[in-house]
Amino acid sequence: MSEISKKIDDIIKAGITPLLKGQGFKKKARNFYRSFDDRIDVINVQASQYNEGAKGRFTINLGVYFPAIAEITEAIPVKGMPKEYNCTVRERIGGVLDDRQDIWWSVDETTNLEKVAIELATKVEGFCLPWLEEMSTVDNVKNQVSKDIPFIAAGISLMQGNKVDAKHYLEVCIKKKPTAKSRSIAWGKKHGLSITPWF
Questions:
Q1: CA–CA–CA angle 16, 88, 128 (5° rounding)
Q2: For strand 89-92 and strand 26-28, is the pairing parallel, antiparallel, or unpaired?
Q3: Helix 138-145 with 150-159: angle, nearest 10 deg
Q4: Is CB count within 10 Å lower at the N or C end of the chain?
């Protein structure tokens, strides 16, 4: 293990591991998982690919995975626990902070690891856990993804029995991603959603 990897692991161990275990999360490598009947919360610590020696950076990624939504949208099946990038809704810690600025923690030989650990735990507790709680309902997830990932919003609408909204979001998806037009139309047809001919 490199020196920077050990430092980051020490920060994780001192900062968020006790906090998240107390909140019902289980740790696997640099991922934390909390399972519910309908979803899995994911917190991932991402180290920069440019870390080297004793210097580097890391950040936090968040996600919530809904198996039922993954199934209806025909997402690639997940074996075992989902990675953050498998999640139905995703966000980086900077996106949930008040200023919405991307944040990376820098670590080197002079870094006070305890201070970084405390700051990390404070932000995870104050911002990340509330975001995961907010994303615990499919309505909030639909609102979150409707602009950037309308296909998932279409799947949620269909799951809720709302074909009008499902059709709307599917049409938005086709406008936004014309390269996925054939797949979107085929998916819609399979679920009884007739797309306007001019698409």
A1: 25
A2: unpaired
A3: 150
A4: N
pLDDT for the residue 197: 52
Q: Which residues lie closer than 8 Å to 137 by C-beta, 6 or more apart?
A: none
Continuous segment of H or E residues that includes residue 47? strand 40-47
Beta carbons of 88 and 109 less than 8 angstroms apart: no
Residue 40 makes CB contacts below 8 A (sequence gap 6+) with: 33, 34, 64, 65, 67, 81, 82
Q: Token match 């074996």: residue?
A: 79
Amino acid present at 194: S
Q: At what angle do helices 113-123 and 3-15 cross, to 10 degrees?
A: 50
3-state class (DSSP) for residue 11: helix
pLDDT, one tens digit for every residue, the chain (199 residues): 799 999 999 999 999 999 999 999 999 999 999 999 999 999 999 999 999 998 999 999 999 999 999 999 999 999 999 999 999 999 999 999 999 999 999 999 999 999 999 999 999 999 999 999 999 999 999 999 999 999 999 999 999 999 999 999 999 999 999 998 999 999 999 999 988 654 4
Helix (H) or strand (E) holding 60: strand 56-65
In angstroms, rounded to a whole number, what is the distance separating the alpha carbons of residues 131 and 116?
A: 21
**Going by C-beta distance under 8 Å and a sequence separation of 6 or more, which residues neighbour residue 163?**
157, 192, 193
